[in-house]
Every structure is written in C-alpha cells, then in structure tokens.
Amino acid sequence: MTAVPRSSRLGRNRLKRAGGFVVGLLLFYAPFALLVRGVGLLFPTTAAGTSISDVHGACLRMPLGWLTQPWMWPALGSSPISWLPIAVLPLAAVAVGPLFCGWLCPAGAFSEFVSRAVPDRFKFDFKERVDIVPLRYGFFAGVLFVPFVSSSITCSLCNFNQMQNLVSGVFGDLSGFAYFSTLGVIAAALWIVPLGMFTKGGRGWCMFLCPAGTVMGLASWASSRLPWAFRVRSDASACTGCGTCQDVCPMRAADITPDAEQTINSHLCIQCQDCVSACPEGALEYRKPS
Amino acid sequence: MRARGKALLWVIAGMALVFALGAYNKSISSGERGSFVMNFPATGTASGGPSPRALTGQVVVPLDRRGAIKRAVQPDVIEVASHVVSNVGDIPRRIRFETVGFPRGTETHSRDRAWNPETQEIERDLAPGASVDFGLLVTLPNPLPAVSVPASGTIRIVDVRNGKLLSALPVRFEQSGFPQAGGDCCAP
Q1: ipTM value for the complex
Q2: Which residues of A touch B107 (CB under 8 A)?
Q3: A46 touches chain B (CB under 8 A)
Q4: How far B78 CA lies from chain A's nearest CA (Å)?
Q5: What is the mean pLDDT of residues A76-101?
Q6: Does A130 lie in the same domain as A176?
Q7: Measuring CA to CA, which residue among B129, B59, B119 is closest to residue B95?
Q8: B27-174 has which fold?
Q9: Chain A 179-198, residues with CB within 8 Å of chain B CB atoms
Q10: Rounded Cα–Cα distance for residues A231 and A275 (Å)
Q11: Domain boundaries in chain B?
C-alpha cells in the first residue's frame, strides 16, 4: 500500500470542508435557508414561520447579547431558533468541539479561503504579537455588556449579514447593497481585508469578533477532558516538532512548545482537522481522550 | 501570576475596544438609521416614536451625526426601520403601509412573508398584540438644501378592508446651523 502524500491529504480535507460549507450555505443562507424553513414549518406562528428565511432567521449573535438583558428574555422563550447559539451549538461543541466553525460556517470559510490568495509573507500572524484567547474573551465580555454603557454592536458588526448580502448578490438580489452604514462598511472591510486576506489563517474575525465562536470555544475547552468528548488530540511520542500543524492551522491554535511538544489550544481549535491531515508523522487524531 | 495579570490586561483591552466601538456606534447610528416603533390604531404621541419607552409621536434623524464613511460613500440614503409595528387594538387588522411627502421617494421593505412589495400590504391578519417589521430607504436631496429640515415625510398605516387611516408617524431629517425653511436666521 502506498502512503498518501500529506499535501494531498490536506487538499482532500479542505475539499471535504468546502463541501461542508456548501451545506452550511444551504442550511443558513437565503435563497435556501433550509434550517429556518424547517423550524418555520414546525413552529408556524414564530418569527421563523412568519419572516423571510435568510441568515437573520437563525441569528447566532443577538440571542447571546440578550443573555445579559432580562427585558429580552421573553424573545428567547418565544423563538425556538434562538436556542441555537445559546444551547444547541455549545452542547454540540461539548461533544464534538466547534465543528460548526470548522466545517459549516460559510462566513468563516469565506475569509479563510480568500486569504489563501495572498502569500503568507504579507500576512499578520496574531499569535506572534497578541495573546489571542484573553483578547477574544475580552471582546466577548464587551459585546455582552456594551448595551449597558452605550450601544449594542451585535448587528452593526455582523459578518453573517455581509455574507448574506454577498450570497444574495450572487443569486441576483442586490438589495443588500442598497444601503451602507459606517459600521457596516467597517465590518465588511475588517472581515475580508485585515482580518481575512492579511491574517495568517484568514480567520481573524473568528478569533476575535464572533460571539458564537467564542461561546463554542469556551464550551469546547471546558469539556475537552470528558471521556466521550471528541477533539483533535496529539500523541506526544509521535510528534517530531516539525511545526507543520502550526503552519496549516487557520485559527493559530496549534503550537509547538520550546520542548518541541505539540499542543492544541482548545479555546481556539475549530476541529477543522487540517493539522490532522497535514501531520507527516500521524501524531494528531480526532478522537476521544485515550 | 504575571501571566494572569497579562491575560487580564488583554481581556480589558478587548472590552475597551468594544466599548469604544459601541460609543462610536451610539454617536453615529441615529444619524444613519432612524429606528422607530409604531402602533396601530393610534393617534398623536401614541402612534410611535424612537423606542417603546419614548413615544414622541415622531421620528427625528439628526443628519449631523452621520459617520465619516457614510458621508463619503452614501450620504443621501438613510434607512428608517422598525422591528415592532404593533396592533394595539382589540380586533385583527390587515394593513397597508403608505409613505407620503418624502421629496425624492422611498423604497419600502419588510421581512414578513406576507409582505407584498407591489401593494405594500401585509397580506395576513395581524391579531391584537401581533407585530411586523417595516422599513424604508429614504433618498435625500443631494446636496442637501441649506435649511434645518431638508426632508420630511410621514409613514401611514391604512386598514386594507375599509381604507381608514389607523396611524401616522411623521419622520423629520434635521441638520443644525441652518434656518427653518423660508425663515430668516438673523430675525430677532
């Protein structure tokens, strides 16, 4: 049996992930939005049943912001799809890690894939300059509490909305481009250019500005040692410290310690498994703890 | 210990950045997007206003507050939108939206599946307590005339079944440093 070259295995993994992102488009984004349509059929009197089906129907940001706003809790009770970012995705992350981010989220995939068009030497590697995890949680805490001191930014800084505009545009609906706001332009530019094209890995937005990803990362970290929790895990005895995993990780979650040991930061890892398929020694696996 | 202190500093930096963005958003958003709530059937101040806790009977968009990018990219299109247009009466109603008086017209929209963009009707009965969303893109004169209220208009809700006016909410676009239209800035 001949060994499959690692570049080919990595390419195959990325192709599979691209398929997953197409499924994500079909589930969340208009003109398909199959998830919202399905929930709308089950609960016809809720917003999912009465509103146009697009990415706003399964908002992954606002319900998280509502958690600190008791006057919005009735909205959580009346809209079953609000539980997606609060309960469904975090519970899924407990069991299998944030597979949603690595395999389904088209907005995260878009910036990641666009960044591949730019050579690495022009990209900024946040891992070298910034303590990504605490900064990420700081942003999230800010999103939760900013409505109490000024104005919420969950909608103004929303890359899912920008992605919906792009997808609708591809299908001939340009209404998303009829109106621009200052923060909307800033959000689109940040998501695609500095935090996408010119960020190593292309997922700068996911690292810092996605509340849903942050909650899933927290759930994944807190549960990573549970005996039935699937995660990307490394075998220290097989790792040679070559650093391939670091190079291919879109979230900058893979690291080689000064002792040449491989580690995965479970706050950040989105279980995309690019590192698993790229590791020349087979030292990484997506599995339960041994 | 030192590492924890450093991490805490990063957390604070993240929060501070979001708070700064929130403050900036608050300073500009009211000039770029007029948010409102509207009730029907209702008259006077009960017809609506900028929020459920501030029913002023009108929507005012302070154009001076538009952000730098909005002024540069698209200064003459302002969105006026509401997530909460509510039936506060005690019988189901079928409604039509009308926008009148806006100098360069409007484009209306709703996310409700029963929205008919041709007739501007919500083609289902709205039970007492039910609400729909509604918004309009208002095109302003460009350049803006040198008056304090360069554009205004009214959002009206009409009962489809009998043509009766159920509610009306005036929308005013304001800018500072100019006289009222037709007025004299130097008059005592």
Answers
A1: 0.91
A2: 178
A3: no
A4: 7
A5: 93
A6: yes
A7: B119
A8: Immunoglobulin-like (2.60.40)
A9: 179-183, 185-186
A10: 12
A11: 27-174
